[in-house]
Amino acid sequence: MRILAIDPGTEKSAYVVYETCLIDLQDIREMRNVVEFGLYKNEDMLSIISSIHGACLVIEMIACYGMPVGKTVFETCVWIGRFIEAKQGEHTFAYRKDVKMHLCNSMRAKDSNIRQAIIDRYPPVGGGKCPQVGTKKKQGPLYGVRKDIWSALAVAIYYSDTIKGA
């Protein structure tokens, strides 16, 4: 299964293309790879999204938690609609609270907790103090993942684990 996960923003958005495939029918083990990722201006994201074929589109959706929201939240909502239009296919929304509960079992989880939960899922094969990320000379499977890309990867993992049962 191929997943295109997006963490939308008002000016820039992060995306991850995440692939899963069954490698052992007896054990039901899967290989899960981050194929590509990036953080781009929203205008550029439109062409990136339309160029990625054969992937399920999953977008982190805005949700109301009882607090007033401002202009940036509504601008992000507009971009979410444009991203859906650019993909021209089915899409799924992933809500932040569901992603937090899935990865950290807590609504109080912060970005650092989500990042660590993702890191814990990958083998320590790279160099440096976080071998899952690694160093330039000895890269790990998460090398280059930064900033909002962690959130997009969290959305992809959530979708892969829960929605499609992969």
Please describe what this structure looks like.
The chain has a single domain (2-163), classed as Nucleotidyltransferase, domain 5, CATH 3.30.420. It has 5 helices and 5 strands; from the N terminus they run E-E-E-H-E-H-E-H-H-H. It is of the alpha/beta class and 166 residues long. It has a 5-stranded mixed sheet, sandwiched between helices. A hairpin with a 4-residue loop joins strand 2 (12-24) and strand 3. The longest helix has 17 residues, at 71-87. The mean pLDDT is 92. The radius of gyration is 16 Å and the shape is globular. It has helices at residues 42-51, 71-87, 96-104, 111-119, 149-163, and strands spanning 2-7, 12-24, 29-41, 56-61, 91-95.
Please supply descriptive tags for the structure shown above:
Nucleotidyltransferase, domain 5; 36% helix; globular
Summed up:
The chain has helices spanning 42-51, 71-87, 96-104, 111-119, 149-163; strands at residues 2-7, 12-24, 29-41, 56-61, 91-95. It has 166 residues and is of the alpha/beta class.
